[in-house]
Specification:
signal; 181 residues; 1 helix; elongated; mainly beta; eight-stranded antiparallel barrel
Amino acid sequence: MSRIAKLAAVGASAAAVVAMTATSASAWTGGSVTGTLTAPLTVKVLGSNVASCTTSTLNGSVTTADKLTISTAAISGCTGSGTVTVAAEALPWANGTLTTGGGTASFNGFRVKANATLLGFPVTCIYAGTITGTNTAASGSPLSTTVTFTNASVSKQSGSSGACPGTAQVSAQYKFQGAGL
């Protein structure tokens, strides 16, 4: 093989490697993802934390077009000023976003129900809406991205006790991993 042909072959191989690397970084592969809570999930009403949960796992999928669906959500380890349980409702939360390369993240259709006992009385608050935050560029091995929501506003839903304020703010941080990234 001539020197020119060898240089051309090496150049083509290098270009192919760069193209494959750029392709894998430019879009999610599409498929399953799991988000694990890495900072407490907190719910604030009227500026005060009413619930703080330490354990949560989200399972779902992401598409190559950055669309995120959360199919299952478990939330536990919740505390507040009394007994508090928080549960996800109205799953799946579909058509959210998880931006390739970092950027906007959202859970569309987010809905949680909190049951609490305050001063001996049961209170049920249901809040829902699209919560929007950010996600980091994917990195590491296995590949992961961190999604952060800070004081994302959600609205009170029917079925809530009268004592529940009209809005609440949700904060949380999840580390997402899986074949879909």
